[in-house]
Specification:
Layout lengths: L4 E8 L6 E6 L4 E5 L8 H14 L2 E6 L5 E7 L4
C-alpha cells in the first residue's frame, strides 16, 4: 500500500491490466503498469483513476504530464 504524501512513480503504458508492480529502490519510485496508451493524456487519466480506486484516496498528478516518470500526491482519507 502506498502511504499519503508525494511520491515518484514510473509508469508502463499499454499493459494488459493496471497494477502496482512494486517499488524501484534504484529510482526511488513506485513502478505502476497502466492499461491505457501514452497518448492524448489517456495513461495519466488511467493512472489517477486506478490509484484512486485502489487506494481509496484522492490522487493528483503534480509533475511529469509528458514523461513516464511522474510525481503524484496522495491525499489522506477524510474521516
Amino acid at each position: 500500500m502506498i502511504a499519503p504524501g508525494k511520491h515518484r512513480v514510473v509508469i508502463k503504458p499499454n499493459a494488459p491490466q493496471s497494477k502496482i508492480i512494486g517499488y524501484d529502490a534504484e529510482r526511488g519510485a513506485y513502478r505502476i503498469a497502466v492499461s491505457e496508451p501514452a497518448e492524448h493524456d489517456k495513461a495519466n487519466k488511467e493512472l489517477v483513476r486506478f490509484l484512486t480506486k485502489e487506494l481509496g484516496c484522492t490522487v493528483r498528478l503534480l509533475h511529469g504530464l509528458r514523461s513516464r516518470e511522474k510525481v503524484i500526491e496522495i491525499l489522506p482519507k477524510k474521516s
